[in-house]
Specification:
The chain is mainly α. It has helices at 16-43, 48-57, 61-90, 96-109, 114-129, 133-161, 173-191, 208-212, 215-242, 249-263, 271-280, 285-319.
Length: 325
């Protein structure tokens, strides 16, 4: 059987523990946040809820929206550029303007799980352009692989520049990066056929993109992604100051990649990322809980709102038999 005739497998129903685990992680994170907020509120002679309300009341929301709306739109354009580039390299020739509905609509599903959103993109391209779902799945896996190294790359730079100013646990990041570089070299050599040329594992359909990728493809994705992270460093640093907490831009360059790793952990509300903010700034737990809550949830819900702008077209292209062009 050729790769192009690989049958589409029926989606598996998640096991009970797979459905429960994200909610359990969320519960643990919000319990931790409540304890930290309650302790800070007690030091100021208040209970947790009134204290948190006062934090929200003191923020200039007009200034905050003036930061977040352009940033979210910019991220959408960069994120779509990455998907467009990958799809055109490994799957089909699709114009950038036609990727926007694909990526935008997937943001709606990504509210609960980013990886499920990537699966929705595979369905979209399968229905719209006839690309086999496993081929698009291979490209989405390639994107996720590159995202890990992209975040680790910038985290290493941030930690190296601000070594004495970041928590000691961050000092392990360069060692992790060194191990990751070795793994990356072995990975590329393996899929180029230089290592274990007869391995059947490499020939699985889901690894099509890795077999076709050249080393420069990986670095190109890191380069395409980087403007979004560098913009986030500026936006998050300025936004944090609106919540009454000072931070340096270079410190944020070390923090943000790690926070974004936390945001990728499955679970509603990006609970792990929110809890990490409070852990990084324990003396400002209330402000950081409010900051993390609105930053991450505004981001995912605003992106979902962008998706709604494209939803009618996406539904038409998937279910209506019209290419929508």
């Amino acid at each position: 059987m050729s790769e192009d005739t690989v049958p589409q497998s029926k989606p598996r129903t998640p096991r009970l523990w797979q459905r429960v685990l994200p909610w359990a992680i969320t519960l643990v994170c919000f319990t931790y946040l409540y304890v930290q907020i309650d302790r800070q509120a007690a030091r100021e002679g208040q209970s947790a809820v009134p204290y948190l309300v006062s934090v929200f009341r003191d923020v200039s929301w007009a200034s905050w929206l003036a930061l977040m709306i352009p940033y979210s739109a910019f991220f959408f354009l960069v994120d779509s550029m990455v998907v467009w580039r990958i799809v055109n390299w490994f799957n089909a020739k699709v114009p950038y303007k036609d990727i926007l509905p694909i990526r935008g609509s997937a943001y709606i599903i990504s509210i609960l799980n980013e990886q499920v959103g990537k699966g929705a993109m595979a369905l979209y391209l399968n229905r719209r352009d006839g690309v086999p779902g496993w081929q698009v799945g291979s490209s989405m896996l390639f994107i996720m692989f590159c995202e890990f190294f992209y975040l680790l790359f910038w985290a290493t730079i941030g930690v190296s520049l601000r070594w004495d100013h970041l928590p000691e646990i961050f000092h392990s990041i360069p060692a992790v990066a060194a191990v990751a570089v070795v793994f990356f070299v072995v990975w590329v050599l393996f899929f180029r056929g230089s290592i274990a040329p007869g391995a059947a594992f490499r020939d699985r359909p889901i690894f099509l993109s890795f077999r076709n990728a050249k080393p420069w493809h990986y670095f190109a994705i890191i380069a395409l992604r980087s403007p979004a992270l560098l913009a986030a460093v500026v936006i998050y640093t300025v936004a944090l100051r609106l919540f009454g907490v000072g931070a340096e831009f270079l410190d944020m360059l070390g923090y943000l990649p790690v926070i974004f790793f936390g945001a990728s952990v499955p679970g509603p509300f990006r609970a792990v990322a929110i809890a990490m903010w409070a852990q990084l700034f324990p003396e400002n737990a209330g402000q950081m809980a409010a900051f993390g809550l609105v930053q991450h949830n505004f981001f995912i819900f605003f992106n979902a709102a962008i998706g709604l702008l494209f939803l009618r077209r996406a539904n038409r292209e998937i279910f209506g038999g019209d290419d929508g062009r």
